[in-house]
Amino acid sequence: MAGIYIHIPFCKKACYYCDFHFSTNWKVKTELLAAIEQELELQRNYLNGESVETVYFGGGTPSILTGEEINAILDKINTLHHVAASAEITLEANPDDLDAAKIKELRQTAVNRFSIGIQSFFDEDLQWMNRAHNASEAKSSIMRAQDAGFENITCDLIYGYPLLTNKKWKENIQTLIDLQIPHISSYSMTVEPQTALASFIRKNKQQPMNEEQSAEQFQYLIEELSKANFLHYEISNFGKEGWLSKHNSNYWFGKKYLGIGPSAHSFNGETRQWNIANNYKYIDSLSQKKIPFEEELLSPVQRLNEYVMTALRTMWGIDLKKIENNYGKEFLEEIMHTAEKYIDKQWVTNNEDKLILSKEGKLYADLIASELFIT
Ligand SMILES: C[S@@+](CC[C@H](N)C(=O)[O-])C[C@H]1O[C@@H](n2cnc3c(N)ncnc32)[C@H](O)[C@@H]1O
Ligand SMILES: C[S@@+](CC[C@H](N)C(=O)[O-])C[C@H]1O[C@@H](n2cnc3c(N)ncnc32)[C@H](O)[C@@H]1O
Ligand code: SF4
């Protein structure tokens, strides 16, 4: 069981905070789509014939594609792989793209899950982020998708930035609960060095992020969504029973996935590889039937640390038996030695051979994971 990720590296506007790979220049869109098909061909054996359980169109902004363009990619995948009949096929969509005509078009594709980039339901916040949509489009895009029969919808929200008062945060969460969205991903605003936001802060045109505010809003999010029957199954992800994301869960469970497109990364169980994050170079290389990637063979210790980091962030926690069986007793003892401190503090619980973050511990996931790393 494996996944395929397709990266669509185009956006209408550059959000001030975003450091993912995208371009606002769409001149080479046709060439890029041809290169994606070429890469799919060249990587046809990457998954070793495993059946494909999930396909995820991410970006950038995949909702700029027409239904026909999406179908062409999915047809290609179908000719090269066995795609499970029940496969989860997600498309990341920005609200400004989801007008009635586009939704109708998307009904004619096999896409069965939308990840809508809402971020906020307030105009001033969306402008502050330089998003291409407004608050009313945020809401209407969700309702339109639901009216057209799309049930499996996840929405992204961002918190922890200066403009977001607790009152607005409450309303953003409540709006998604009221709209009966079954899955929510929510991220604390991070200031990435190469972004406009970082440059505004350096020039004192913007306040830096406030960690206390962010922690408070994260706690509030956890409490409200738990009251509304969401499982907090990964630090940034909440879903109602039966609606958890299969694609992302497979990343956390260490399953294989093939990433196609510029900046996409792949994992075959042993090595990680990632494609060049440059549209022109990507197209040029594939026109010569060469995949422009770098790779890294993970050592057992690196694999163990990665496992500790991703598993600790999930509600299933770190499986101590798995560590003992796959990596040996010594590593297990070393990890347990460090974990004692956090178990005493009640940041981590140790039940049935699992280390799981407590409510308080969720605030310190990254710190705890880095302390547990084997060096
Ligand atoms: C890379 S975007 C792609 C999907 C789509 N273009 C969108 O904007 O929603 C995926 C998610 O990452 C979030 N994201 C990107 N940069 C971030 C940052 N610096 N801090 C927090 N969230 C961020 C986006 O807001 C979005 O919800
Ligand atoms: C920040 S996450 C948001 C997930 C989404 N809200 C959900 O739960 O369905 C998604 C972003 O991570 C990046 N991403 C995911 N898988 C990737 C892969 N295999 N290679 C490169 N980028 C990837 C893409 O930029 C994508 O927009
Ligand atoms: S957040 Fe989404 S829409 Fe905004 S620049 Fe990044 S990928 Fe594009």
UniProtKB/TrEMBL annotation:
<dbReference type="GO" id="GO:0005737">
    <property type="term" value="C:cytoplasm"/>
</dbReference>
<dbReference type="GO" id="GO:0051539">
    <property type="term" value="F:4 iron, 4 sulfur cluster binding"/>
</dbReference>
<comment type="similarity">
    <text>Belongs to the anaerobic coproporphyrinogen-III oxidase family. HemW subfamily.</text>
</comment>
<dbReference type="Pfam" id="PF04055">
    <property type="entry name" value="Radical_SAM"/>
</dbReference>
<dbReference type="InterPro" id="IPR006638">
    <property type="entry name" value="Elp3/MiaA/NifB-like_rSAM"/>
</dbReference>
<feature type="domain" description="Radical SAM core">
    <location>
        <begin position="1"/>
        <end position="231"/>
    </location>
</feature>
<dbReference type="InterPro" id="IPR004559">
    <property type="entry name" value="HemW-like"/>
</dbReference>
<keyword id="KW-0411">Iron-sulfur</keyword>
<dbReference type="InterPro" id="IPR058240">
    <property type="entry name" value="rSAM_sf"/>
</dbReference>
<dbReference type="InterPro" id="IPR010723">
    <property type="entry name" value="HemN_C"/>
</dbReference>
<dbReference type="GO" id="GO:0006779">
    <property type="term" value="P:porphyrin-containing compound biosynthetic process"/>
</dbReference>
<keyword id="KW-0949">S-adenosyl-L-methionine</keyword>
<comment type="function">
    <text>Probably acts as a heme chaperone, transferring heme to an unknown acceptor. Binds one molecule of heme per monomer, possibly covalently. Binds 1 [4Fe-4S] cluster. The cluster is coordinated with 3 cysteines and an exchangeable S-adenosyl-L-methionine.</text>
</comment>
<dbReference type="GO" id="GO:0046872">
    <property type="term" value="F:metal ion binding"/>
</dbReference>
<dbReference type="Pfam" id="PF06969">
    <property type="entry name" value="HemN_C"/>
</dbReference>
<keyword id="KW-0143">Chaperone</keyword>
<protein>
    <recommendedName>
        <fullName>Heme chaperone HemW</fullName>
    </recommendedName>
</protein>
<dbReference type="InterPro" id="IPR023404">
    <property type="entry name" value="rSAM_horseshoe"/>
</dbReference>
<keyword id="KW-0408">Iron</keyword>
<dbReference type="InterPro" id="IPR007197">
    <property type="entry name" value="rSAM"/>
</dbReference>
<keyword id="KW-0479">Metal-binding</keyword>
<keyword id="KW-0349">Heme</keyword>
<dbReference type="InterPro" id="IPR034505">
    <property type="entry name" value="Coproporphyrinogen-III_oxidase"/>
</dbReference>
<keyword id="KW-0004">4Fe-4S</keyword>
<keyword id="KW-0963">Cytoplasm</keyword>
<dbReference type="GO" id="GO:0004109">
    <property type="term" value="F:coproporphyrinogen oxidase activity"/>
</dbReference>
